[in-house]
Structure formats: structure tokens, C-alpha cells
Design goal:
By secondary structure, the protein is mainly alpha-helical. Helices cover 80% and strands 0% of the residues.
Length: 149
């Protein structure tokens, strides 16, 4: 039976062509039925951009990120966290305005450094001696890293 089918297919290339086209179309329909025509219908785990799409929808809070990082490194108390968040939020708009300015990069960098120094000096006033030492080391490491990049 199998030999007859193979002979028939070899003798009739049109039949072989139509069979291949049929399977090509049919496999696409099966794929669409299982995975859906868009990403929303895919089964869990099939969406490779699942994590990045969640992050895009979340609003990034710069002040919260700064406080979280400093808290991890310096072990801040609640009052210090609130004060640092306020300091960063008060200066965030100035930094955003400078970043949107149509001026050369070195000028932007200088203006941003002035504001960042103001933020850092305000934060230093809130920290204990040990925390201030760690904070200064963090700043030095950040500057070294910025120079190497």
C-alpha cells in the first residue's frame, strides 16, 4: 500500500504539490487556533515580552528608586527615607527641564551636576557619620563608573 502511494506521488507531481500546500495551510490554522491571532490569546509562558510589557505600563518613580537604593546600602530609618524622597522630588522637575533643553551635552551635564551636588549635600545633612562615609564611597564609585563608560 505504501509503495503504491509513493509511486503515485512520484508520478503525479501536481498531487504532491497540492498535498504540500494543504499541509502548509492547515498547520498555520492549527497554530492560530492554539496560540491565537494576537498576543493576548497566547497561553501563559508563551509571551516572551510578558515582563517588559508590565514594566512599560508601570510609572517609574525616580525618587522611590533613589530611596530604595540608598536604604539598601545605608539602612535608612523612616524619617530619613521620607526626607530624601522629598529632596529628590523637589529637584526632579529641574533635572527634567534641563534634560529637555536644547543645549550642548557638556552644558547639560554641568547644570545637572550642580543640582545633583545640591541634592547630595542635602542628603548628607540627614545621615549619621557612618552612613555619610558609605554615601561618599557610593558617590566616588559612581563617578569612577561614569568616567569609565
Amino acid at each position: 500500500m505504501i509503495k503504491f502511494g509513493i509511486k503515485l506521488l512520484l508520478m503525479k507531481p501536481k498531487i504532491l504539490f497540492f498535498i504540500l500546500v494543504f499541509f502548509a495551510c492547515y498547520s498555520n490554522d492549527c497554530y492560530s487556533q492554539f496560540y491565537g491571532n494576537n498576543r493576548a490569546n497566547r497561553p501563559m509562558g508563551m509571551d516572551t515580552d510578558n515582563r517588559s510589557s508590565k514594566k512599560k505600563n508601570e510609572k517609574y518613580d525616580y525618587a522611590e528608586a533613589v530611596v530604595t537604593h540608598l536604604n539598601k546600602e545605608l539602612k535608612l530609618d523612616g524619617l530619613q527615607q521620607a526626607a530624601i524622597k522629598t529632596i529628590v522630588n523637589d529637584n526632579k522637575n529641574s533635572l527634567e527641564e534641563i534634560s529637555k533643553m536644547d543645549i550642548p551635552y557638556p552644558e547639560k551635564k554641568d547644570k545637572m551636576n550642580v543640582i545633583n551636588e545640591k541634592i547630595n549635600s542635602s542628603i548628607l545633612q540627614l545621615l549619621s557619620k557612618e552612613q555619610a562615609e558609605k554615601f561618599n564611597k557610593l558617590q566616588e564609585e559612581r563617578e569612577k563608573k561614569a568616567l569609565t563608560n
